[in-house]
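Dear H.,

Thanks for agreeing to be a second pair of eyes. The structure we're designing against is below in token form, covering all 568 positions.
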């Protein structure tokens, strides 16, 4: 298929050629000085997004919420949380984005609501049709109905004194799970989705969507490593029935981008969501490549090898190549900063940030940029639990202190600072002004102390910055179909330092070579890789215009060689 034919065949699937930018509104930009990011603050930075070259924005929840989980506990799906603004502010943001040909994808959180949602308040009172909107079970106040555990730690059940029953919450106790077996619940969700689509949005990112279906009898889970009970609610028995119904009722327009966050899925599972015979989602967020180093649970992360990393990413590249589509990300609001996780946030912060960006923009799939990634933001330091805001981290600390081997916060601090979610939620670093130019007030969470040197203002002024490199990456991917649709082939899978692969689309070819080490390494091109016609397209260091049979890569050096053919 020629490049022109490829583009014509996917006109309704613009998202395959798009780059998506994720905004965590609470931490992006504060316009009113109250220390909390808001919609007007985002609107003021729309030109920045346009200059970067992104095609769509995924906006994390801005709905009304008591903020028990920073907005993922929604009390009113059709109202904006006052700290973020109001619907007029939201509409101005939508218009500003659309005027610049940037699409807007809203976060859809329908596995659970807030306890303060009217549905739950009426359900706990057994109020008519709302009585079975949530998952309630009888039982002694001292004994949960089963042994399922919350994703945030502790039991997945809380006893409600008003209703005198237990309710299920796979996350925080302030986030009761909706009962998707009830058709009235599904009708209410679909009606809400249709309302947002009528406002002009371009799709949904669906929070933990593969958890909405639970095993009918809620049986005990098998205790062991990891969260107990997942076999009964990850990819539950009716999940595809519900998603097909959602597609038929609400999402039949193929131009809508639908991203399913699906913890626990493998490649074969993913095909049931995104394949030609699947449930109709555009793509899924899978977690295998950001959890492969978790030894039992996320707080034991960190022991990994490049060979393992390559194996996981390559499995997804080839597994969905012929039937489905990948999302490509290395960090987001729930993951630590990628340069601290997979690169070097010290001496080689700039080089490794560019290398990781090269990886995400040259793999097959839609790249997702998390705010601040494009300037190389890093994990932060949290000297005290008082500096933390994330309920998951705080729960982990509390549970850890109950163990005999943990005496103080210092005993778990390394884990918090390595994989804790607050790493991703420190304010966006706009300048070296107080509070990183994020707010004129007291920020809701502390700024990373390195904002005086790592910030947008400084990056804009430096032609060799991570920011300018990201602009070049986005432009390159936009120009070269081989980086979007090309076949992926991994080279040297066991090499301990080099991640190398080819991309092939008809006569167009590409070679990507990445050194994941802080020491120079010699790369020998495999004999079956044709180098003729390849020219340097982008690199994060000085490199020859054409590749040789072998060459030395510097610390965290990245090179992309492509045939010069471009689509018209």
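And this is the sequence the design step returned. I haven't edited it by hand at all.
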């Amino acid at each position: 298929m020629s490049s022109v034919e490829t583009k014509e065949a996917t006109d309704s699937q613009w998202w395959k050629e798009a780059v998506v930018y994720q905004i965590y509104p609470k931490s992006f930009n504060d316009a009113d000085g109250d220390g909390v990011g808001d919609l007007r603050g985002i609107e003021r930075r729309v030109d920045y997004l346009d200059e970067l070259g992104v095609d769509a924005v995924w906006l994390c929840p801005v709905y009304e919420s008591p903020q028990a989980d920073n907005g993922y506990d929604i009390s009113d799906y059709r109202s904006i949380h006052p700290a973020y603004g109001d619907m007029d502010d939201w509409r101005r943001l939508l218009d500003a984005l659309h005027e610049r040909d940037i699409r807007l994808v809203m976060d859809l959180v329908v596995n659970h609501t807030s306890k303060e949602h009217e549905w739950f308040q009426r359900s706990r009172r057994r109020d008519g049709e709302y009585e079975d909107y949530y998952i309630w079970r009888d039982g002694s106040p001292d004994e949960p109905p089963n042994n399922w555990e919350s994703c945030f730690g502790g039991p997945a059940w809380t006893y409600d004194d008003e209703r005198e029953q237990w309710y299920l919450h796979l996350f925080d106790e302030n986030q009761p799970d909706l009962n998707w077996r009830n058709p009235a619940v599904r009708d209410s969700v679909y009606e809400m989705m249709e309302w947002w689509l009528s406002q002009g949005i371009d799709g949904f990112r669906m929070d933990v969507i593969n958890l909405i279906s639970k095993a009918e009898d809620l049986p005990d889970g098998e205790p062991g490593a990891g969260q107990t009970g997942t076999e009964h609610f990850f990819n539950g028995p009716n999940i595809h029935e519900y998603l097909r119904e959602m597609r038929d009722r609400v999402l039949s327009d193929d131009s809508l981008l639908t991203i399913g966050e699906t913890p626990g899925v493998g490649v074969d599972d993913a095909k049931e969501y995104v394949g030609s015979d699947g449930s109709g989602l555009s793509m899924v967020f899978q977690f295998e490549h950001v959890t492969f180093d978790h030894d039992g649970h996320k707080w034991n992360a960190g022991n990994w090898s490049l060979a393992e990393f390559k194996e996981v990413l390559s499995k997804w590249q080839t597994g969905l190549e012929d039937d489905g589509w990948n999302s490509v990300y290395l960090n987001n609001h729930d993951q630590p900063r990628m340069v601290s996780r997979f690169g070097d946030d010290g001496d080689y912060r700039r080089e490794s940030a560019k290398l990781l960006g090269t990886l995400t923009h040259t793999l097959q799939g839609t790249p997702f940029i998390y705010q601040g990634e494009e300037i190389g933001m890093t994990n932060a330091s949290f000297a005290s639990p008082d500096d933390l805001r994330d309920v998951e981290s705080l729960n982990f600390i509390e549970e850890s202190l109950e163990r005999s081997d943990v005496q103080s916060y210092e005993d778990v601090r390394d884990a918090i600072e390595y994989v804790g979610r607050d790493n991703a939620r420190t304010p966006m670093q706009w300048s070296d002004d107080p509070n990183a130019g994020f707010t004129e007030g007291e920020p809701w969470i502390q700024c990373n102390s390195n904002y005086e040197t790592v910030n947008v203002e400084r990056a804009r002024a430096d032609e060799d910055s991570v920011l300018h490199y990201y602009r070049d990456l986005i432009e390159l991917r936009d120009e070269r179909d081989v980086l979007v649709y090309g076949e992926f082939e991994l080279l040297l899978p066991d090499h301990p330092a080099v991640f190398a692969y080819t991309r092939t689309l008809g006569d167009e070819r590409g070679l990507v070579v990445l050194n994941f080490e802080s020491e120079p390494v010699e790369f020998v091109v495999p004999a079956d890789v044709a180098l003729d016609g390849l020219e340097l397209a982008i690199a994060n260091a000085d490199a020859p215009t054409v590749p040789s049979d072998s060459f030395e890569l510097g610390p965290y050096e990245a090179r992309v060689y492509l045939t010069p053919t471009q689509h018209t």
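Two observations from my side: Residues 485-562 form a domain with the Immunoglobulin-like fold (CATH 2.60.40.1180). The chain has 17 helices and 20 strands.

Warmly,
E.
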